[in-house]
Amino acid sequence: MHLSRPLFLLCLALASCAPSGAQVTDAARQQLVGMDVSDLQACAGIPNRTQTLGDGTRLLSYEQKNENVGGLNISLPVVGGFSLAGSGTYCHVLVRVAQNRVIGLNYTGDNDDVGGQNGVCAPIVRGCVRQPVPAYVPPELTPQPYEQ
């Protein structure tokens, strides 16, 4: 029984070192602006939907559905219900693109978790935050400058 307490404390310490979902989504708002859209798709994947707006910019929509929300939901007659330590169930990350560069990110949906705002959106942008490097393009596929 004495072994379980140190093991629990070790797990708790390791969990506290990992960035929360809210920290990841905040970092993405700063780090992804200016990223080439090809690099974004290399780290975040192909968007679920795209839309070209009247001003020529594009919206790329990424969606995350969280079926396992955890926490405790309590419903009492007359008083109503509430939940403890649960998380949101879905997120839409809207990436605005102009001239093939990311110019902004917005998070919408029921996307808060116990770690803070927009935490449910973290899986969509986490790969881009962890490794914000350009996607590899083989030299034979790189466009060559036009010579006259």
Mind telling me the CATH class of the domain at 21-68 and 87-133? Alpha Beta
What would you say the CATH architecture of the domain at 21-68 and 87-133 is? Answer: 2-Layer Sandwich
Describe the global form. Answer: globular
Share of residues in strands: 25-35%
Signal peptide: 1-22
Organism: Teichococcus aerophilus
Keywords: Signal
Protein name: Lipoprotein
Characteristic terms for this protein:
148 residues; alpha+beta; Beta-lactamase Inhibitory Protein, Chain:B, domain 1; 4-stranded antiparallel beta sheet; two-stranded antiparallel sheet; 4 helices; globular; signal; Lipoprotein
Walk me through what this model shows.
The protein has 148 residues and is an alpha+beta fold. It has a domain at 21-68 and 87-133: Beta-lactamase Inhibitory Protein, Chain:B, domain 1 (2-Layer Sandwich). It has helices at residues 4-17, 21-31, 37-44, 122-130, and strands spanning 49-52, 58-65, 72-76, 80-84, 90-98, 101-108. It has a four-stranded antiparallel β-sheet, with no helix packed on it. Strands 3-4 form a two-stranded antiparallel ribbon. A hairpin with a 2-residue loop joins strand 5 and strand 6 (101-108). Helix 2 (21-31) crosses helix 4 and helix 3 packs across helix 4. The N and C termini lie far apart (79 Å). Residues 10-18 have low confidence and may be disordered.
